[in-house]
């Protein structure tokens, strides 16, 4: 509009001069005025958190989810400059916590930290609302791989090949302790059994699975390296196979499932989610802060000290992981239903 005004004034001046039959008088010679520097547009400031943030985890205090979340909360609090409150809401494999979370205010100051157990509950239809359709995966932080362990003193086998040979010769006789057939352990076991070609008898142990395995009460236990590192180093526990697509650095001499022809790799993971009506700008600011903390040595060394894999995935990567987990769980639970 300014350019248009200047052009119009110029045209008016030309016609005025022509009407008077005179040329315009030359302007007095003077130094050209210095152009004022163009004012810079103020930088856009992203979303800034100005009060405490609450994160719900559907896990009990002292659990792996609780321990890792509290460490991340401390680091995030320092990064964002606000308090991060952790709320433990265990019960019914995620149903209790997320049902409560659904009714909270999703104003950008409320997030969730969860594991595959809640996904399993959704697959089984245990929620009274569309859980998977109500949440947005934000980013994952860590993962671990399940390992089959046996007692080094009371076992009938010493490696995967001897386990397979014994299980084929004694169908249904080999027992393995898992925490639950309806959670991540059950899904991992279902995926394994559908692929391995032999039978294992599953025994549910909510607690004391380690004691049962060490004593020989059960032949095998499925757990993680981090939870059993001390028993491995003492020689009391013998790792048999890792449910993974590659060997784990902590157990370089232990085969993984994919290398022996078993396509079973699902393991525990933890990540942040929010409800779909959470403001986008707040969600993105929270994700950015988590990503920055996740790159830091303090967080990564903390995970490695617990035997976890550093496994940060952005929203797209975490969404893919969550969807893959739901598919694997559906197949695993279907396998159990038909066997």
Q: What is the H/E string?
A: HEHEHEHHEEHEHEHEHEEHHEH
* Rg estimate, integer Å: 31 Å
**Which stretches of 5+ consecutive residues score pLDDT under 50?**
1-44
Helix content: 40-55%
* CA(first)-CA(last) distance: 77 Å
Count of individual beta strands: 11
**What number is the mean pLDDT?**
87
The level-1 CATH class of the largest domain: Alpha Beta
Number of helices: 12
Categorize the overall geometry: globular
Would you identify the CATH H-level superfamily of the largest domain? Bordetella uptake gene, domain 1
Largest sheet: 6 strands, mixed
The CATH topology of the largest domain turns out to be D-Maltodextrin-Binding Protein, domain 2
Helix-strand category: alpha/beta
In what range is the share of β-strand residues? 15-25%
CATH architecture assignment name of the largest domain = 3-Layer(aba) Sandwich
Spatial strand sequence of the major β-sheet: 2-1-3-10-4-11
The domain tally reads 2
